[in-house]
Amino acid sequence: MAPIAEKHKEVRTKRLLLRPLELDDAEDMLDVRRSPGAFHFIPRALDTSPDSVREWISSCLTRPNCYNFAVTVLPDGSQGQGQRSRVIGGMGAIRTPEIGYMIHSAYWGQGLATEALEAFMNVYWEHVAELDPPCNYAVAYTDIENWSSRRVLEKCGFKLCKISEHDVEHPTMGTRSTAHYWLQKPNTAFEGEVDVTSEAWKKALESVYIS
Questions:
Q1: Which pLDDT band, with edges at 50, 70 and 90, does 45 fall under?
Q2: What is the CATH number of domain 6-208?
Q3: Beta-bridge partner residues of 103
Q4: HEC profile for the chain?
Q5: Where are the domains of the chain?
Q6: Do residues 77 and 182 touch, judged by C-beta distance below 8 A?
């Protein structure tokens, strides 16, 4: 993972704390993934052990184009001093400039995913401004029927730019379609057509997207 800047090691909102993802978060992240509905649209088998989640976190920590955070609820005073806050989700640049997130379903319906994504995007713009070359946009992909995720993206300014029909094979739901979203950095302009089939889009992605 790209080194987390000191100023990004604690990102606070009204209700949340975003901090760098750690290997010790594996148990909590497994609980997030196992929560009802959280993994429903993910096109691969659900993790079954903390070790498998730990491997995923390890891969995040070693990928230079990853900038991932754990999402925790700010302490309310009921926790003992020094006790770690429970991780309720993950948020970040999975592979810059691709954004991804997941929140434990027990915390749905409270606007927390939107709150976390808004906070992360401020961090993201600061992070990608220091890349070589800098990046001034973000992309996100979700299942066409994942309306909750799509609403979160749209509340945070992402624009739907394409639907890819029948492009993903889900292990239990069969062939699925993907909604492609784009967010341009405020006060910047994209030079070209905002369409994933355009040459300008492909060139932009190739400049920073490392598989």
A1: confident
A2: 3.40.630.30
A3: 89
A4: CCCCCHHHCCEECCCEEEEECCHHHHHHHHHHHHCCCCCCCCCCCCCCCHHHHHHHHHHHHHCCCCEEEEEEECCCCCCCCCCCCCEEEEEEEEECCEEEEEECHHHCCCCHHHHHHHHHHHHHHHHHCCCCCCCCEEEEEEECCCHHHHHHHHHCCCEEEEEEEEEEEECCCEEEEEEEEEEECCCCCCCCCCCCCCHHHHHHHHHHCCC
A5: 6-208
A6: no
Residue 152 corresponds to which tokens in the numbers above?
């979160």
pLDDT tens-place string over residues 143-188: 999 999 999 999 999 999 999 999 999 999 999 999 999 999 998 8
Query: The tokens 């606070």 sit on which residue?
Result: 12
Cβ count within 10 A of residue 168: 16
Distance CA 78, CA 75 (A): 7
pLDDT digits (tens, 9 = 90+) for 51-104: 999 999 999 999 999 999 999 999 864 444 455 688 999 999 999 999 999 999
Q: Are strands 137-143 and 159-170 parallel, antiparallel or unpaired?
A: unpaired
